[in-house]
Amino acid sequence: MDDTGLDGIAQFARQEIGPYLAAHPEDRYPLPLVRRLARLGAFGAAAPRQYGGGDWSRRDIALLGYELGRGWQSLAGLVGTHLKLCRQMSEHGTPRQRERWLGAMARGESVFARAYHEQGVGHPSGLRTRATRRGPVARLNGRKSWVTNARNADRVLAIARSDGAVVGVLVDPARPGVTVGPELPRPGMLGISLAEITFDDYEFDPEEEVLGGWGHDLTAALLTHDVTSYAARAVGSADAVLEHTVRFVRDGLAHRPADVQGAVRLRTGELAAKVAVMRTVWHALLDPQPPETQGAPMTSAVAKVFCTGTLQDVVREAAALCGGAGYAATDRTLDRHYRDALALPIIGAPNDVLLSRIGEQELGRG
C-alpha cells in the first residue's frame, strides 16, 4: 500500500526521481513515474472527494508543486496542468461531465492537457481557433502552440471561439481531425511532450463535449491568473540546488587554500540568503498575515515574478560554485535544474505580462 498524500509524494520526489533519471533518458516519457504519482493521489489533489479526489487546500497543492519542483519540473508541469483542468471540470462541467470524467481524472486514468496558447494572442477574444455548430454536430478548426503533454494526454481541452462565447472543447486526440506536431526543440522541461496541435474539421458533440455545454463562456476563468504553483516550483528547485551545491562544496572545501575557502564561504552565504528570501516571499503568499501587521498583501503575480527570476541567479551562481562539476558532470541534477529554470519566467503567465499588470496597478493607486 502506497503512502498516499503529500508526505508520500515528497518522499517519492526526493528518493525516486533522481535514480530514475540516472537510469533513463531525460527526453523519454516517464510512464513509471506518472503511474507512481497516480497511485500516490497526485492527480486527484484538486478533485472533490465525492469523485475520489483529495479536495486539497490551495496551500497543500502549492506544497505539491514545491516537492515536484525539487525533483523534476517536467512532472510538476504535467501534474499542475492536469490539476487546473480538474478544477475547471469541477467548476464548469455539467453534472454528466463531472460524473463521467472527475473520477477517472482523480485516479490518473484520464490525464488531461490544455490547448490554449496561440502565438501572438494575449486575450481569449483574439483566439483564431474556431468552434462552429451545425445542428447536432460541431467542428473545431485551428492550431495551438506549446501544448504540454500533447502526445500522451487522454483528452485535450481545446479553447476556441464560438458565436458569442469562448468555449472549451473536450477533444479525443485519437479521433480524426487532430494532428500532433513534432516535439518542439528546447533546452529543458524534457520527457513530457511539448508540441503544436492542429484541428482540421474535428467533429464533436456540441452539448456533451463542450465544458459546461455549448455556449458556456470560459472568458472570465481564463483571465484569472493564480500563478502560485510557479512560485512554489521555483522555490522547490532553489532548495534542491542549494542542497546539492552545499553538499558538493562541503566535501571539497578542506582541500582548498585558505583564501579560496573564505571566498567560497562568502559565495555560499550569498546563495543561501537568496534562497531564504525566496522562501520568505513564498510563505508570505501561502500564510498571509493579518492586515494590521503588514502592508499590501503578497500576490501570486509578485511571488511568481520574484521567485522565478531569482532562481535564474541561484542556478547560475550554484554552477559557478561547483566549478567544472557544475558545468560537466555525470550527475545531471544541477544541469537539469539550470535548463528547466529557463522556462519558469515564461510559462503560466509570462513575467513581463505580470510586471506590466503590477505596474498598472501601482500607477493607478490614488
Looking at this protein, list some descriptive labels.
366 residues; alpha+beta; Butyryl-Coa Dehydrogenase, subunit A, domain 1; Butyryl-CoA Dehydrogenase, subunit A, domain 2; Butyryl-CoA Dehydrogenase, subunit A, domain 3; four-stranded antiparallel sheet; three-stranded mixed sheet; 7 strands
Number of helices: 13
- The fraction of residues assigned to DSSP E strands is 5-15%
Q: How are the strands ordered across the major sheet?
A: 2-3-7-6
CATH fold descriptor of the largest domain = Butyryl-CoA Dehydrogenase, subunit A, domain 3
**Uncertain regions: pLDDT < 50 for 5+ in a row?**
none
Write a concise synopsis of the structure shown.
With 366 residues, this protein is α+β, with helices and mostly antiparallel strands.
Describe the structure in your own words.
The chain folds into 3 domains: 6-110, Orthogonal Bundle (Butyryl-Coa Dehydrogenase, subunit A, domain 1); 113-218, Butyryl-CoA Dehydrogenase, subunit A, domain 2; 228-364, Butyryl-CoA Dehydrogenase, subunit A, domain 3, CATH 1.20.140. The protein is built from 13 helices and 7 strands. The protein has 366 residues and is of the alpha+beta class. It is 50% helix and 14% strand. The chain has helices at residues 6-15, 17-23, 31-39, 58-71, 73-92, 95-107, 219-222, 228-253, 258-286, 300-322, 324-327, 333-341, 351-364, and strands at residues 112-115, 130-134, 137-148, 155-162, 165-171, 178-180, 194-204. The longest helix is centred in the last third of the chain and has 29 residues, at 258-286. The chain is globular, with a radius of gyration of 22 Å.
